Amino acid sequence: MKKITYFANANIAVVKYWGKACKQLNIPIVSSLSITLDKLGSLTSISETKNEDVLFVNGVQQKEESLNRFKSFLDYFRDTFGIKTFFKVESKNNIPTKAGVASSSSAYASLAAGLNELANINLPNKELSLLARLGSASAARSIFPFAAGLYGGENLSHEEAFGFSVNSPSIKDLRLIIILVSEKEKKISSRKAMIKSEESPFFKTFVQESKKDFHDGLNALQNCDLESLGTIMEHSTLKMHSVLWTLKPALNYFTSQSLAFMERICLLREQYGPIAFFTLDAGPNVKVLCHKDALEKIIEFLELDKQSIKYLISSPGNGVEKIDDR
Ligand code: PMV
Questions:
Q1: 35 pairs with which residues across the strands?
Q2: For the purposes of burial, counting CB atoms within 10 Å of the CB of 222, is it exposed (0-12), middle (13-18) or buried (19 or more)?
Q3: Best mutation site among 22, 101, 151, 281 for ligand 1, i.e. most ligand atoms within 8 A of its Cβ?
Q4: How far apart are CA 213 and CA 182, in angstroms?
Q5: pLDDT in the model for residue 66
Q6: Looking at ligand 1, which residue's alpha carbon is closest to its atom 10?
Q7: Ligand 1 centroid vs 103 CA: distance in angstroms?
Q8: Alpha-helical runs (H) found in the chain
């Protein structure tokens, strides 16, 4: 039986998507921007099955929430493209799963790309990003190499909420250090947390502020202006988490270690100037954006080699890629 395998890099948002304009079609309420993580993401193999959809993640057969989400994604795919078969999907992540390191972005990007080929529908990247977005909105950005954006907004249709590539000539000089404070699965999924977020008194402000962050962030990304980009990224991150902290009861993804690293990065800037900026997603893991030439200094200042905490370094990577089955 034919088996297709794709690898997609995960991506880290520099301007955050948080909140849905349409839950059913997974349309983000704000536009966002991101950088892909070279060699860090999901390897996904797909083959056809006769009777039912089956999903394995890291070798474990999925049930309940993640199986239901996967099945409704495949139902949409079958309905839209007139496909009659079911699928067996085996996905492996080389980053922690559901721990706020964007594993769903690479999972659904690699799945969409594999289905596109297996079903022979030849979608161009823009349409592929629409399909990936239905699984996980951030996955729309993992279709593209290096830097990408995703349109969102209160009144956008499915077709208008697509991912796009951002041209940034010196983007390859940037690095992201991913500090794995905890590899545990998050207690509440980003999907649930986003919906709950609508109850925060700060949610409307986050949505309003995101317009400017997207506009200014795009400029900074295109010019590869680390100081502007990093400043916008931290601000977008803290606004997203402020929405969570101002829920009743509050929702908090940080641990004391996350806060300690955020504080160290601010101290580092006091000493060396604007060379490193932090971001956190729906989990406690801290990602640090910097220029490649500052890596050594930052690792030393954060004492990453002296601690038992694992960390990864990644540069902006390729878009989704086919892997030959041997
Ligand atoms: O695409 P989802 O449902 O995994 O949500 C991603 C949300 C954040 O990672 C927190 C922000 C983003 O833009 O990727």
A1: 12, 147
A2: middle
A3: 281
A4: 29
A5: 83
A6: 281
A7: 10
A8: 64-81, 103-118, 125-135, 190-197, 203-222, 226-245, 256-272, 295-301
What pLDDT, in 10s, does the model give residues 102-159? 789 999 999 999 999 999 999 999 999 999 999 999 999 999 999 999 999 999 999 9
Residues within 6 Å of ligand 1 by CB: 13, 16-18, 32, 102, 104, 136-138, 190-191, 281-282
| Cα 244 to ligand 1 centre (Å) | 14
**Smallest Cα–Cα separation from 44: which of 6, 10, 3, 75?**
6
Residue nearest to atom 9 of ligand 1 (CA): 281
Q: Residues 283-287: what's their mean pLDDT?
A: 96
* Cα–ligand 1 centroid distance for 306 (angstroms): 31
Mutation pick for ligand 1 pocket among 18, 103, 213, 287 (CB with most ligand atoms within 8 Å): 18
Q: Are 93 and 42 in contact (CB under 8 A)?
A: yes
If you search the block for the tokens 């991913």, which residue do you land on? Answer: 178
Residue range 180-222, pLDDT digits in tens: 998 888 789 999 999 999 999 999 999 999 999 999 999 999 9
CA of 54 to the centre of ligand 1 (A): 24
Whole-number mean pLDDT of the chain? 95
Query: Residues 6 or more apart from 32 whose CB is under 8 A from it?
Result: 13, 15, 16, 17, 138, 141, 149, 150, 152, 210, 214
- CA 236 / ligand 1 centre spacing (Å): 13
> Among 105, 120, 129, which residue's Cα sits nearest to residue 4?
120
pLDDT average, residue stretch 68-96: 94
> Is residue 152 a contact partner of residue 28, using CB atoms and an 8 Å limit?
yes
Q: Give this prediction's pTM.
A: 0.96
Residues 6+ apart with CB under 8 A from 33: 13, 14, 15, 141, 147, 148, 149, 150, 166, 214, 217, 218, 221
